[in-house]
Amino acid sequence: MDTTGLEKNAANYVPLTPLSLLQRTARVYPHRTALIYNNLKRSWKEVSERCQQLAAALQKNGIEPGDVVSFVAANTPELFEAHFAVPMSGAVLNACNVRLDATTLRYIFEHGESKIVFVDSEYASVVKSAVTGIKNPPLLVDIIDPAVPGERIGTCNYEEFMAQAENKKLFIMPKDEWTPITLNYTSGTTGNPKGVVYHHRGAYLMAMGTAVSWNVPAHNRYLCTVPMFHCNGWCHPWMQAILAGVSICMRKIDGADILRLIAKHEVQLMGGAPIVLNTIVNAAAGQPLPHKVQFISAAAPPPASVLQAAQALGFNVMHVYGLTETYGHTTMCAWKNDLWDTLPQEEQEKKMIRQGVGLPILEDWAVFDNNRNPVAQDGKTIGEIVMRGNVLMSGYLKNTSATNEVFAGGWFKTGDLGVWHEDDYLQVKDRLKDIIISGGENISSIAVENALCKHSAVAMAAVVAKPDEKWGETPCAFVEIKLDEATPTVDDIKAFCKQQLPSYMCPQHVIFFELPKTATGKIKKFELREQAKTL
Predict the structure, then answer these.
(1) To the nearest 10°, the Cα dihedral for 46, 47, 48, 51?
(2) Domain ends where: 385, 404, 431?
(3) N or C: at which end does the chain have fewer Cβ atoms within 10 angstroms?
């Protein structure tokens, strides 16, 4: 076919961006509620206007296209607005994990070259330490929440910053859909986190794909239990703009508060790590929900006991899987009602805990052996889970070698080991790089080991995941003491780690003994994992 004259033009090609989703919803459903937080309620028209004003204020303060704007904030309206306002200014949003220590935050601010940091007053002290000594420190802006006390370290607060805008209607659309939209840091398996760059195209497609895959209804009521600093809240702020849905914000994960909000706002959808589900189950004490709620569970699959209790309360639980590099969930345990509803409970649970099949926006997925050949789809042969599609990161910021390595061969290598079932469903069996997933957060075993080895009495250390009913997994440390040193107490080691690491990364169990090693001196972590299960 002769394609002369069929080139892209301004009429038939517009770069994909989630900004267009807000633009449409503000025009079509301006009166619909977009945000609820305590007594605050804002419409989509109000959210759109505030986002444009914040974008204009960012420009007024010297933010240019490609600059990085960081937020250290809880799940409050400010961080929701930032998901639209920051890219509206042409800048890149960097939503930081509020559980990080000052050293890690300093690295992120310096590596990402953050120009402005918006900081919730609850986290002001750690941010204050993080920016101390930075050669070109970012401008600090306070987010003031009357619900929590905290120090004010900014030159102004969020509302005062917005008031600096002159035209109040800045709305820059990307000229190229490959333009970066957010920068998310993942712990990986090395000391410093890697900066994962998302583009407008991927953010748009993930939002669309999630809405379709999960059959999320228009004008739905979504409870924000997934942190918006984690894969941009699984891209849910942008998904809600497609559907003119309501996002109900909350600062802390509290079981009783979640149950109260579910009833008050008739919540239909929420998500999080198994620990969130477990927290709700414990708070409910057997009292059923007033209506059915869809719960999307990520990270390690929920324990069978928690899954059963949640379903009895009225939750419809679906397990999903993904990584920071994949904009969050890219596979889901799609439930086949016509085939599985009549199975015995035990068999249904075996189906539920699998990581599932690709969402429509994931073009392909597989499990490869060491020679990059697909393993047998027998549910037994273990290989590395790989993916390809339009919801994969652009790459790692300032780390071309790591980007090339993870994309080698035209597939994204997840670093997770799993099996491939006959029905095409994936199931994660182990983590190739020893990542520990605790409460939905990735913990680098190497980072914990490095901290342990700083102790004067420690010769070697190995850290593995120990299954935990509450957190999914927790770090378990096996420590070998130097010959001439007295063995410290477990409490001494734990206290030492707390000086080096965020509390959630510190080992919950510490065992002293000579580490098992191979002939070449490598520690036999597979033996330690088995031992950790028995503790």
Answers:
(1) 120
(2) 431
(3) N
